[in-house]
Amino acid sequence: MLSAPPTLPLSPLPLSSPDTITFLSSYSSTCNRLATAAVRAAAGDGGDSSSLPKGSGTTARGRRLLKVREEKRRREHDRIHDYPAWAKVLEDACKDDTELRAVLGDSIGNPEQIRKKVEERVRKKGRDFHKSKTGSVVAFKVSFRDFNPTDSYIWIELYGSPSDREVDLIGSVFQSWYVMGRLGAFNSSNLQVSNASMDYNPLYDSDKGANALPSSFHDISDVEFQDNWGRVWVDLGTCDFFAMDVLLNCLTVLSSEYLGIQQVVFGGRRLGDWEEGMTSLEYGYKCFKI
Q1: Could you read off the pLDDT of 96-117 as tens digits, one per residue?
Q2: Please, is 102 exposed, middle or buried when counting C-beta atoms within 10 Å of its C-beta (0-12, 13-18, 19+)?
Q3: Which residue ranges does the record annotate as region Disordered (predicted)?
Q4: 3-class DSSP state of 116
């Protein structure tokens, strides 16, 4: 604790007296000490610094960074404790499954996007991620129900609701079948090569082929599906019935190699749970345009 400088005497002292010299020296020394202490206190180098006012020590940028870090910690906590278990399983599986990783893409970390990606994959390609052969080893059943070649449905029953890919496969078969019939392919009156012997080079009579009775597939509808049942309306026109053998041969290989067919029915107006006019995608309706 610094003492105050000595009080000046009320009555003047002679400048040459010893008391005056001693007093001035003491007064000057005290003033110097007080000035030095004040400078040090102002600079923060001396005295008790705990009594000095302190700032917050943060800037606006620092407070923003702190807020960002807190938000990141909160999100990480929510991800660990509230993250759906199924999404975590899929993300872990991506490490060893390149196809699954390609399906999820940039949706990892977002359960809602993961769900949409998987649903889209299932809708397009079916439920199995790895499936080298998707057909059935069991041959499908074939039956006829008052089949009229010029005005009848052909029904197909599958083992389950078809994916978009399977709808395209079946639709493409019927489309190709119709195009061939439209061009006169199913004409039994001109089977020169199949009726000839192949022991020698067969002869083909072009005039006979050109003058054969025309054969034409008249019309066909789009291929429709409701759940696991599909149907297509046909008017075979003047096609010969072996056109149906050609179709069944195609469907046989399609069933054994790719999608599995339970039965094919020629004729009939309503099979399974088919509901006329029900064309909503939400209820399993799908269609292949021909």
Answers
A1: 777 788 888 888 878 888 888 8
A2: exposed
A3: 42-64
A4: helix
- Show the CA angle centred on residue 4, arms to residues 14 and 13, nearest 5°: 5
Residue 166 to residue 170: CA distance in whole angstroms: 6
CA distances from 9 to 21, 24, 26, 64 (A): 13, 11, 14, 63
| SS3 of residue 83 by DSSP | coil
Q: How far apart are CA 87 and CA 108, in angstroms?
A: 9
pTM value is 0.55
CA 125 to chain centre: 12
Q: What's the burial of 30, exposed, middle or buried (CB within 10 Å: 0-12/13-18/19+)?
A: middle
Q: What is the dihedral of CA 187, 189, 193, 198, to 10 degrees?
A: 130
Kindly report the backbone phi and psi dihedral angles of residue 130, in degrees, each rounded to the nearest multiple of 5, phi listed first: -125, 115
Collect all residues with Cβ–Cβ distance below 8 Å to 160 and sequence separation of at least 6: 228
CA distance 34 to 170: 104
Residue 244 near residue 266 (C-beta atoms within 8 A): yes
Write the DSSP string, 245-281: HHHHHHHHHHIIIII-EEEEEEE-S--TT--TT---G
Q: 184: which DSSP letter? A: T
Which tens digit of pLDDT belongs to each residue from 20-56? 556 556 656 665 666 566 556 555 544 444 444 444 4
Strand 229-235 relative to strand 141-145: parallel, antiparallel, unpaired? Answer: unpaired
Task: Domain 141-187+213-288: give its CATH code.
Answer: 3.30.70
- What's the rounded Cα separation, in Å, for the pair 268 and 234? 12
Structural domain boundaries in the chain: 61-125, 141-187+213-288
